[in-house]
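FORM 12-B: Structure-to-Sequence Request
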């Protein structure tokens, strides 16, 4: 699947069960590895990124059993020094959360990944962990993997973060789990970690000034997790259903955590015909059935906390903007530049190849709607969200879209192409 071609073939109709939530899947493995007792995880996403977290946990001495339906993490309340370097693959979540976990462990670990991961910044995580007393070294002054970590007793201090980041916040909370820690962000990022820590027995509270305050937590208890279906994966079908004429798609049991449901709010702001029906489910995450129908979209401004809550979905929302009426402005999203690729630059280049008037800005882009046309050739540069976003564009753009280096789709959504064919 290194090269992918998608052309219009009529409406998309039916039901699609998207994979389990990627963020919750990572945390259900990594955090239960620290806990006492057996945790049963159902609905785990089995993409390559989450498998990197599973293999890392196993390398750290934790038994993980997977029968293809249910995963059991047998936590012992302690990790052991790995015998070899831990390969995090393409997963930024794995390497950054592990950095926080291992900073508090009294042994030596080396974390690495593929070429893409080794080019991505680590300083925002490594810097605060060094301030707590962890010894962390890496390439480019410690900013790039491979990184070597010698953990142990850490000093507690408050961290007032300059940039909202769930990965950085999580790394610090997990590093400070034994001695306690306080973390504040300028805006609230996704809170999967906080929800799980509380359910695992941690004394964690959000005060009136925006500080997450974690009391010393010498023990975490294993937590069974029913992983909700992934809203980031559902976003591709939400946009597809909105822009492909005649479409109606139902997506059941999707996680709609309010700290990351910005894509729902963004599509509603653009005029999408979207129904959200909450359903009862066990666990800490709110879940709903989603139904999207084709409608005429209008341009909108996606910025501030809305952009933060839709950060991973902004590439496919840019596709929605291309087929909307009027101008869409995406701003306050400079974090897109340090993902698997520079997603601002890649989206603008791809949209222009489709004949869309798109302007790149330091923290986002401006897109003039009205439709897109193929045939167009897009280079996804190994970024799964870029590849899937332009695959959705290919479902409606006359002439279709050819996407190079699309193999990374399997890292987060292994059944994406099969689901597309069924809906068609």
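FORM 12-B RESPONSE
SEQUENCE OUT:
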């Amino acid at each position: 699947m290194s090269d992918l071609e998608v052309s219009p073939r009529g409406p998309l109709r039916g039901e699609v069960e998207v994979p389990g939530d990627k963020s919750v899947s990572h945390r259900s493995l990594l955090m239960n590895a620290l806990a006492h007792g057996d945790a049963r995880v159902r609905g785990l996403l089995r993409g390559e990124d989450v498998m990197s977290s599973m293999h890392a946990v196993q390398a750290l001495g934790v038994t993980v059993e997977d029968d293809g339906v249910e995963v059991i993490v047998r936590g012992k309340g302690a990790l052991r020094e790995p015998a070899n370097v831990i390969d995090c693959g393409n997963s930024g979540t794995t390497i950054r959360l592990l950095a926080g976990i291992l900073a508090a462990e009294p042994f030596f670990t080396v974390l690495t990944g593929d070429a893409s991961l080794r080019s991505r910044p680590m300083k925002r995580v490594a810097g605060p962990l060094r301030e707590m007393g962890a010894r962390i070294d890496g390439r480019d002054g410690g900013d790039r993997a491979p990184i070597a970590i010698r953990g142990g007793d850490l000093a507690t201090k408050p961290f007032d973060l300059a940039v909202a980041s769930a990965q950085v916040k999580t790394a610090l909370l997990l590093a400070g789990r034994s001695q306690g820690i306080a973390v504040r962000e300028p805006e609230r990022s996704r809170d999967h970690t906080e929800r799980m820590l509380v359910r695992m027995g941690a004394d964690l509270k959000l005060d009136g000034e925006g500080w997450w305050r974690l009391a010393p937590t010498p023990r975490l208890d294993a937590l069974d997790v029913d992983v909700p279906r992934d809203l980031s994966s559902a976003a591709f079908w939400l946009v597809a259903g909105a822009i492909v004429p005649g479409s109606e798609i139902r997506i059941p049991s999707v996680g709609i955590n309010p700290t990351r449901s910005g894509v729902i709010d963004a599509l509603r702001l653009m005029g999408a015909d979207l129904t959200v029906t909450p359903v009862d489910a066990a666990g800490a995450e709110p879940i709903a059935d989603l139904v999207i129908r084709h409608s005429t979209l209008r341009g909108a401004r996606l910025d501030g906390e809305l952009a933060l809550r839709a950060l991973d979905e902004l590439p496919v929302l840019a596709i929605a903007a291309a087929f909307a009426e009027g101008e869409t402005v995406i701003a306050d999203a400079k974090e897109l530049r340090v993902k698997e690729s520079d997603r601002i630059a890649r989206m603008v280049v791809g949209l222009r190849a489709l004949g869309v008037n798109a302007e790149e800005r330091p923290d986002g882009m401006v897109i003039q709607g009205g439709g897109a046309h193929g045939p167009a050739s897009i280079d996804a540069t190994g970024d799964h969200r870029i590849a899937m976003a332009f695959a959705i564009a290919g479902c409606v753009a006359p002439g279709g879209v050819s996407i190079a280096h699309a193999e990374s789709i399997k890292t987060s959504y292994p059944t994406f192409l099969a689901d597309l064919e069924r809906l068609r």
